[in-house]
Design brief:
single chain, alpha+beta, about 375 residues, 2 domains, 10 helices, 8-stranded mixed sheet, globular, 12 strands, Ribosomal Protein S5, domain 2, about 40% helix, Alpha-Beta Plaits
């Protein structure tokens, strides 16, 4: 056995820019305090042996040369299998490894636990076999693993945020050029994430249906992606589009504009403007993209009333459950949000969870002194 490596890959919260990433638009995520951790050690037998420490130490094993084989009995293992296969597809020599996986990202929360897992595995194998992958390559490999093997056609936002996150900053990602611009978050502004109590999964849900609607709209308008479409252009083609494609496109086009407006407002710390933009984003996800739920809408409404006009709140993530994110004065978030959670629970019989987060650095190599695999 070779020397062990130990890596951390954070989850992310998206401040604004929902479902714009796979349309080559703009997003503004930041890496957060919750993460996936992978300890890895090389082995000479061409096998990957992975243990999920948080799932009763469940262990799976497969021979790399046999190629990707989905395991419905252990869905988490498909991410390990997928990343391994993408590395093989790209010509990287992976000789076998033992992996121990753990983490504290709430599952089904919309905080990118799957992207974090893929990034952590990729980075661990990168270090273990000296593959010398760039940060962008790690993000792309993690994305392809989900797209081509696991079956979720996600964009690249989650992976980039997990790899390239920066302490105290959000990252403005242009999903066409893949350029990243750090955006400073004022020290007195906090980020609160509230899990709605509704767990969701993206694979096999309406997520892929929404993405197909965006493709139909762009093809009808004759543009490569919705990044190239304007609202006036969309309206000119309205009669040729089915209602779902039209409304999905309207959300994406207007959401791209909101991301850039949010960045401009953040640079001058215009709190009330930030709150208005976040409200418009949530309303668009509710009315056009139709990915919120009544419980999520209620949670956003209750938090917004408690926080007042200087703080913003919206659903974050792929939709159909998961979390909402609140953005504003730290003290206000800490003092006011807990007061509304019991009311939300009384109305919905759902148990919410509050997480106060700060922007974190992206995936990194950690001390291996105490690692035992």
């Amino acid at each position: 056995m070779g020397a062990a490596v130990f890596v951390r890959a954070p989850g992310r919260v998206n401040l604004i820019g929902e479902h714009t990433d796979y349309n080559e638009g703009f997003v503004l995520p930041c890496a957060i305090d919750f993460a996936t951790y992978v300890a890895a050690q090389s082995r000479p037998d061409g096998r990957i042996v992975a243990t999920a420490l948080d799932i009763n130490n469940t262990t799976i094993s497969f021979q790399i040369e046999r190629g990707y084989q989905c395991d419905p009995s252990a869905p988490w293992s498909n991410y390990v299998r997928a990343v391994t296969q993408v590395l093989v597809d790209r010509g990287h020599a992976i000789h076998g490894a033992s992996l121990a996986i753990t983490g504290d990202i709430p599952q089904g929360s919309g905080l990118s636990s799957s992207a974090s897992l893929c990034v952590a595995i990729t980075k661990a194998l990168d270090y273990l076999f000296t593959l010398q992958l760039s940060a962008l390559e790690i993000a792309q490999i993690a994305q392809v693993a989900e797209n081509e093997y696991v079956g979720c056609h996600c964009g690249i936002m989650d992976q980039v945020a997990s790899v390239m996150g920066l302490e105290s900053k959000a990252v403005l990602l242009d999903c066409r050029s893949l350029s990243v611009t750090p955006i400073q978050i004022p020290s007195e502004i906090g980020i609160a994430i509230v899990h709605s109590g509704i767990t969701r999964g993206l694979v096999g849900t309406e997520y892929n249906m929404r993405r197909s609607s965006c493709v139909r709209a762009s093809l009808t308008m004759g543009v490569s992606t919705l990044r190239d479409a304007s609202l006036s252009q969309l309206n000119a083609y309205k009669a040729k589009l089915d209602e779902c494609a039209y409304k999905c496109a309207r959300h994406v086009i207007t959401e791209n504009s909101r991301v850039l407006a949010f960045v401009d407002a953040l640079k001058i710390d215009a709190r009330s403007e930030l709150a208005k933009i976040m409200k418009a984003s949530h309303n668009s996800m509710r009315d056009d993209f139709e990915i919120t739920t009544p419980a999520i809408d209620l949670l956003v409404e209750l938090i917004q009333i408690a926080l007042g006009p200087e703080c913003g709140v919206r659903m974050t993530g792929g939709g159909f459950g998961g979390c909402v994110v609140a953005f504003g004065d730290k003290t206000t978030l800490i003092n006011q949000i807990p007061n509304v959670l019991s009311e939300y629970q009384r109305h919905t019989q759902l148990r919410p969870n509050l997480y106060l987060c700060t922007p974190q650095a992206g995936a990194s190599l950690l001390d291996t002194a105490r690692v035992a695999i």
